[in-house]
Design brief:
With about 270 residues, this protein is α+β, with helices and mostly antiparallel strands. The chain has five helices and eleven strands. Helix content is about 15%, strand content about 20%. Strands 3, 5, 7, 8, 10 and 11 form a six-stranded mixed sheet that branches. Strands 1-2-9-6-4 form a five-stranded antiparallel sheet, covered by helices on one side. A hairpin with a 4-residue loop joins strand 7 and strand 8. Helix 3 runs antiparallel to helix 4. The two termini are about 20 Å apart.
């Protein structure tokens, strides 16, 4: 699905309302650009005889390297909710607040220059029709930022950097954020989630396009490449919702990072 936007300047006054989310954007000029959501193609049946159930129990192996400066755990890198604290309509099965689909460290790697970011939305009012996506480098310099349309009843955002945005550089850390206004306008208390990403180079993953999709997911996971692994796995699960092997890997991955109870409502 491709959302088209006319080019227009993002109001600088709006940017100043988010000092935590958008620090480093003051005085910056951002274009409202085209952004592609759900960019991966449909994936054919991918079950591999070489991957048995025990192999797929812990598909992701976190890297041992140091985290980027200023990184926080997933829970600390989010703020607020559009739902009142004591809402009689709130379901016990759904969390209050949005969740980044990341390990508990709130950090992950990618080999892609334009990776996919996944965010689970739990309590978005019907009056909210857009969200703000922003990414900056480790020094706080703006890389990309724009408002994007939010389709009704969306539960999982799949956000991919478009061709118009600067590509991520190998060996660099970046912080990304998603803010979803409760009333249509960005405010200092607008709920947001954020996470860290590092682009790396891994020669062992060059030929994964020729592998069955689930085996490619396994290769990315064993190499500690979170973003590419989970984006491919999410797309595979969407395209084959009844495939038991894919469902097991998806659920095990969410359990491994501690958010299965949250995203289980999407199954």
């Amino acid at each position: 699905m491709m959302f088209q936007h006319s080019k227009k300047w993002v109001n600088r006054r709006v940017i100043t309302l988010l000092p935590v989310l958008c620090s480093g954007l003051a005085g910056a000029s951002l274009y409202d650009l085209t952004l592609e959501v759900s960019a991966l193609p449909a994936i054919e049946n991918s079950t591999s005889a070489r991957l048995d159930s025990s192999t797929l129990q812990n598909i992701f192996v976190p890297p041992n390297d140091s985290l980027p400066r200023g990184s926080q755990t997933r829970g600390a890198a989010s703020r607020g909710s559009c739902r009142p604290t004591e809402d009689p309509q709130a379901s016990q099965a759904e969390p209050q607040g949005n969740v980044s689909v990341l390990p508990k460290s709130n950090y992950g790697r990618t080999v892609s220059e334009r990776p996919v970011f996944l965010v689970y939305l739990s309590d978005i009012p019907e009056s909210t029709h857009s969200f703000f996506f922003h990414i900056r480098d480790e020094q706080g310099e703006n890389v990309y930022g724009t408002f994007l349309p939010l389709e009704p009843n969306t539960k999982m955002l799949r956000i991919q950097l478009p061709e118009e945005a600067l590509r991520l550089e190998i060996g660099q850390f970046y912080k990304w954020s998603v803010a979803v206004p409760c009333s249509g306008d960005l405010k200092p208390d607008t709920p947001f989630v954020s996470g860290w990403i590092e682009r790396v180079e891994d020669a062992s993953l060059v030929n994964t396009a020729s592998l069955p999709a689930l085996e490619a997911v396994y290769r990315y996971g064993q190499a500690g490449i979170w973003y590419d692994m989970v984006a491919m796995l999410d797309e595979l699960h969407r395209s084959q919702p009844q495939d038991l092997t894919t469902m097991m890997v998806w659920q095990n991955t969410l359990q491994q990072i501690g958010i299965y109870e949250t995203l289980g409502v999407l199954q």
